[in-house]
Amino acid sequence: MNQHTRFNLPICLTVEEDAFFHTDEIVRRYIPDIIGQKAVIISEEFLIGIYREKIEDISRDFGGAEIIAMGGASFDEAVSIAKKVCVEDIKIIIGIGGGRVLDTAKYAAHISKAVYICMPTSLSNDSLASPFSVLETYGKVRKTFACKIPTAIIVDTNMIINAPEGQTLSGIGDTIAKHTALFDWKLSASKSGSQVDDFAYALSRMSYDSVYHCDEKNMKSRVFIRILSRALVMGGLAMEIAGSSRPCSGSEHLFAHAIEEYYPEVKISHGLGVALGTIPACIFQGQEPDGIMRFFKAHGLDFDPASYGITAEMFADMWLKARTVRTGRITVLDGIKHDTVQLNEIYSRMQEGI
């Protein structure tokens, strides 16, 4: 019997053209009881500048909601927003932005018990629907906090089409990572005697399959954006049902965390870091990485570590550190010897793209 019998699901998942201009209609259709309640919009200064017309339109839909440009994606920022929400009797938090904004708004809504409406401007990772927020704690040190998933997720396909291509590639990387994450989850369950939640596993596998086997290769097409949006949401729901990030996060994520924590000078998004980690993780697991490498190539995702400024020495060290970044999380890395020669071979293979 799975102990996680209680979980939340979003009331609404809308993926439509110009959805940001019809927010009031969407909310009225799915959550009519919040109409007329006090709301606040959280975003970032530069996004408010770029999307002023749309954000002001959404503000009007919610009775002149105050628009806040957040400082940073930190625990302190989320707490400060939650304090304002509680003190001023605000009932709705609307997050408009990428992963940093959505994680901050989501955690603020969790603390303040406000209704949270998630409105992504890019699809860079599966945090839009996950029951976790990754926030800075002291300085640049980041920690993952459990929280409630959004009440509503509204994706405007026009916004995603116009988002930087690198952000969509990052979302693709985070989705494809489920292939190695699910392997590690099963491995961990067999070693620890714990259970894999079959429904969460199936949802995560469907998320991966829907993107990996998608015939539409054009990332700017509405069909692809709809599929990627749903795939990222399915990943979030899989984590909510499992009560952990295991359906979406394995050794490939440990590699990405090692970059973030030990090599902050390497400029690579979370999803692309995870994508780079998926290829070696496949090899460590005894799975053939060729299919994933072909898939990345077809979408123009660069998996040569050198193009991100990662040398062979750094690459080997990142995998050494990946073993230590999340103590207690069993993955394939626990059962294999750290082999620099093998890692150098993998590095060369990734450089050559074969």
Q: What best-fitting shape do the alpha-carbon axes yield?
A: globular
Order of helices and strands: EHEHHEHEHEEEEHHHHHHHHHH
Contiguous low-pLDDT stretches (5 residues minimum) are: none
Percent range for β-strand residues: 5-15%
Total number of strands = 8
> Helical element count?
15
Radius of gyration: 20 Å
Main sheet characteristics: 6 strands, parallel
| CATH architecture label name of the largest domain | Up-down Bundle
The total number of structural domains is 2
Give the CATH H-level superfamily of the largest domain.
Answer: Dehydroquinate synthase-like - alpha domain
The first-level CATH class name of the largest domain: Mainly Alpha
Q: Let me know the average pLDDT.
A: 94
How far apart the termini lie comes to 44 Å
CATH topology of the largest domain: Dehydroquinate synthase-like, alpha domain
Q: Estimate the helix proportion, in percent.
A: 40-55%
